[in-house]
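Section 5: illustrative case.
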């Protein structure tokens, strides 16, 4: 197991090297640069040239790449060209918001998608199964920006049940001294303030539902397919012939063997969500990594795009490595060598 993990981590090096090369070529191929965003379109050519020289953008592309990689080897992810804040500092400040939103969205997807997929599989061909299948197709097809705006209007503007922007009520609570920026943890465990915790949860509900809709539909479809495949296996028929209860069959035979594809899709979806949800974060003013990278793309902030993408790539690989390692627990017959 340890050798497998080390080998996978070593494979991360050439992957990140190739990704960094692709990103720097791609972002520099886009029209414009950070200086145009900083100084505006009507600035003088002299100021524009001085800005580019100060940021090192006047150097050949290969020199910029070597300078950037040299900084990475020394633990320096660079500094934003627009606000002059270190990339790592800004990422650490924003990533907790993305983590909370992503985990809440996956909790919605898993909590509803897995039971829904199991129920649909056990009622194959029924009205419930058809409705669940059509519902999952709608969930995959519906645009997130439309669903987010619809949820915000219905539950925020029309019914006034839930807030539609931010992570907490700025007029009542103060998280300016927050150390971790994990507001759920800080309000419940550190501050032990139940009203504060409930306010954070209320702000989290709508964006979590909007972001979790597509993963929910995917998880439900994969769960249904995996459970259907296991239900047709001989060992399940043998267990029924022995007179085992349905609950015991489901727990010991069906779910355990169907969990591999389900765990795979959950890991993939979690890795994707940790990359930031641009539309959801923008609609609900969430202030996570997704909206940060989107603004960096608008401002042509090359360093932020390069370093932010590399960090998210590392996280995605680590999440999938965790899923791969979990296979040995889910199925003891799997061995890593």
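Designed sequence:
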């Amino acid at each position: 197991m340890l050798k497998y993990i080390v080998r996978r981590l070593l494979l991360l090096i050439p992957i990140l090297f190739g990704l960094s090369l692709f990103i720097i070529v791609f972002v520099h191929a886009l029209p414009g640069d950070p200086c145009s965003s900083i100084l505006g379109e009507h600035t003088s050519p002299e100021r524009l040239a001085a800005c580019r020289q100060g940021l090192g953008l006047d150097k050949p592309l290969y020199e910029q790449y070597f300078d950037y990689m040299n900084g990475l080897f020394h633990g320096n992810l660079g500094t934003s060209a627009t606000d002059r804040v270190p990339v790592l500092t800004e990422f650490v400040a924003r990533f907790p918001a993305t983590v909370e939103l992503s985990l809440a969205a996956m909790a919605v997807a898993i909590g509803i998608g897995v039971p829904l997929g199991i129920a649909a599989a056990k009622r194959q061909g029924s009205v419930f199964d058809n409705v669940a299948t059509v519902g999952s197709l709608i969930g995959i097809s519906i645009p997130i920006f439309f669903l987010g705006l619809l949820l915000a209007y219905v539950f925020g503007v029309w019914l006034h049940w839930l807030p539609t922007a931010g992570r907490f009520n700025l007029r009542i609570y103060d998280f300016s001294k927050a150390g971790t920026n994990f507001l759920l943890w800080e309000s419940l465990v550190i501050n032990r303030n139940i009203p504060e915790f409930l306010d954070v949860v209320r702000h989290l509900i709508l964006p979590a539902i909007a972001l979790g809709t597509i993963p929910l539909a995917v998880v439900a479809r994969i769960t249904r397919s995996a459970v259907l495949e296991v239900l047709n296996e001989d060992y399940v028929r043998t267990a029924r012939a022995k007179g085992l209860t349905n609950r015991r069959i489901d727990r010991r035979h069906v779910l355990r063997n169907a969990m591999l594809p389900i765990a795979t899709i959950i890991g993939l979806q979690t890795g994707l969500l940790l990359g930031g949800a641009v539309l959801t974060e923008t609609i609900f003013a969430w202030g996570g990594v997704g909206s940060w990278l989107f603004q960096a793309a608008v401002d042509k902030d090359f360093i932020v795009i390069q370093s932010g993408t590399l960090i998210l790539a590392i996280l995605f690989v680590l999440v999938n490595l965790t899923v791969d390692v979990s296979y040995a627990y889910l199925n003891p017959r799997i061995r890593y060598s």
